[in-house]
Design brief:
By secondary structure, the chain is of the alpha+beta class. The protein contains 13 helices and 24 strands. The protein is globular and about 70 Å long.
Length: 548
């Protein structure tokens, strides 16, 4: 049924799993403002006809998957891709250089404009976890995904119900998101807009736009979180222990630390007027006895980029923040051979107080969607300051019978204020390592804002269940009975009969069958599905996962 006015909608496809017969076998589309406005159909062609019956913005939860079927249909039905604003019979895309889909904009041959967006960029959770996060009564169901569904197949009542439920879950959640004013493409963009509103006039004076040359120099000091096991305990049963998390690590840094602002200045020697700086230095290092490593060298031909080094025995040049340099000097005997200059900053605390206080209060006094929105705003802002300025897109094209992606023309965007992201993450790394060092004899593993410690005694850290920046014992205070740690993002902790398995890249349904003892030896698990572009769209191909 044609729609008579623009609406925000949620939609979903159910697709075949046979790469030789890849197609949409049913679809549904629901208005976010009126759940009774729900339309279903068979095949991608009927969906596109529905989509282009009236202007709309439609959210798919993982547009990279569902959108690929739509691109296939558009190319094969006379539509043309364009880099600019599409005209009749054209479509444009916003796909990152890493292949992440942000939007697809289509103008029908009759002039109707429809935009597709990715709700996963707004709510970074699988559909199964959305009801709990938004306090919804709906629950995600299951169907037999690999069943034979030939052309002309009519879904059963159970399959229609499954489809409806998935879409209804996301429509309810997206209504909360959009009603709150979060209308941009990503939650990071929403958070930056919210901060600018709270900060008021003068954002560009506090955070001036720097030239690409200066931004590139500062960006070289930007690093992520630290995740590493204690090498002494790798692939060994540890016995009982506890896991503790820092309450809102990055918001705590933003609320309590002196952070850079204004236009930086260059100096060849250390400037006493600088509060913070980034520095390019050539050094060697040797870990101090009974200290934890924290130096990781990316893009190095000499070192494993995932390894935290105990020794750097040949002069190596890096760019780091003054906060990192302070930590390195605490943990290592550091020899500096040369310094090629400093980017200096004035710093101040309180830049984010109003923003953090507002959303911490919402988080503390709310449940469901309001609390989830608060958590999204608290955790998404810092990264937006250091957004990648290389926005060279991927461009879809039809190669024979298959839609593929190629690298488009080079594009650059202005930075926000990369130094902010660099120093926020540096302070977080410093606090994590210092906290782990304070419990050196018990240390088993750390990851960004969490510590895993041997023994069940309270650690030598300030504990509080909710206070900003305090540590809390996870799993409702329950210690684990035993654990094994392999490497970053690969470990398992046993709580009674339950094994809490964390293996990055291993699907949850496979991880649910893994036992702690399995991780003491190399393993190969089958059943991991990886997307592959095939005629019709994307098929999930069965492959294996190797645990070394």
């Amino acid at each position: 049924m044609p729609r008579n006015s623009t609406s925000n909608r949620c939609a979903d496809f159910e697709t075949t799993t046979n790469p030789l017969d890849c197609r949409v076998w049913c679809w549904g589309s629901m208005s976010i403002s009126d759940y009774d406005d729900y339309v279903t159909g068979l095949g991608v062609g009927s969906y596109v006809a529905h989509l282009l019956s009236a202007p709309s913005i439609t959210y798919f939860h993982n547009l990279a998957f569902d959108g690929s079927f739509i691109l296939d249909h558009l190319f094969k039905n006379g539509y043309t891709w364009t880099a600019g604003n599409p005209k009749k019979g054209e479509f444009s895309t916003l796909i990152s250089g890493m292949g992440k889909f942000y939007s697809i904009t289509i103008v029908s041959k009759d002039g109707v404009k429809a935009e597709l967006r990715d709700s996963l960029k707004k709510i970074p959770l699988p559909v199964r976890e959305v009801p709990k996060a938004f306090n919804l009564e709906s629950r995600k169901g299951d169907i037999e995904y690999d069943a034979d569904r030939p052309v002309g197949y009519l879904p059963s009542d159970e399959e229609w119900e499954y489809l409806y439920n998935d879409i209804y879950i996301m429509a309810q959640a997206m209504r909360v998101i959009l009603t709150s004013g979060m209308t941009r493409l990503t939650v990071g963009a929403d958070s930056l807009a919210e901060f600018k509103k709270i900060h008021g006039k003068g954002f560009s004076r506090t955070f001036p736009t720097l030239s690409k040359t200066v931004d590139d120099d500062i960006r070289a000091a930007y690093r992520g979180g630290i995740a590493m096991p204690n090498r002494k305990w790798v692939r060994r049963l540890t016995g009982p222990g506890i896991t503790i998390d820092k309450n809102s690590m990055y918001p705590w840094v933003m609320r309590t630390k002196q952070l850079p602002y204004g236009r930086p200045w260059w100096s060849e020697t250390e400037d006493p007027d600088a509060d913070l700086y980034t520095v390019s230095l050539t050094f060697t290092a040797r870990l101090k006895p009974d200290h934890l490593p924290c130096i990781q060298l990316k893009r190095s031909v000499r070192f494993n980029q995932n390894e935290f080094l105990e020794v750097v025995d040949e002069p190596t040049t890096v760019t780091i923040t003054s906060v990192d340099l302070e930590l390195w000097q605490e943990q290592y005997d550091l020899t500096v051979y040369a310094i090629s200059g400093y980017w200096n900053f004035k710093a101040v605390d309180g830049l984010f107080n109003d923003y953090i206080d507002k959303w911490m209060a919402v988080k503390a006094n709310s449940t469901g969607g309001a609390r989830t929105i608060a958590k999204l705003h608290l955790n998404s802002l810092y990264g937006k300051f250091a957004k990648n300025t290389n926005v060279t897109p991927k461009v879809p094209y039809l190669d024979g019978d298959t839609v593929k992606l190629r690298t488009g023309d080079h594009e650059e965007s202005n930075p926000v204020y990369t130094a902010m992201g660099a120093f926020i993450t540096a302070y977080a790394r410093q606090d994590l390592i210092r906290s782990a060092q304070a419990n050196y004899d018990r240390f088993l593993y750390c990851d960004t804002d969490s510590l895993h410690l041997r023994g069940t005694d309270e650690p030598d850290l300030y504990l509080h269940p909710t206070e900003l920046g305090a540590w809390k014992v996870e799993h409702d205070g329950q210690p684990f009975d035993d654990a094994v740690f392999l490497r970053a993002k690969q470990y398992c902790e046993r709580f009674g009969d339950y094994d809490d398995v964390h293996i990055a890249g291993l699907p949850k349904e496979i991880a649910a069958k893994v036992r702690l003892e399995d991780m003491l030896h190399p393993q190969v698990w089958h059943g991991k599905l990886v997307p592959k572009r095939v005629p019709g769209g994307v098929s999930l191909i069965d492959t294996s996962f190797t645990l070394k």
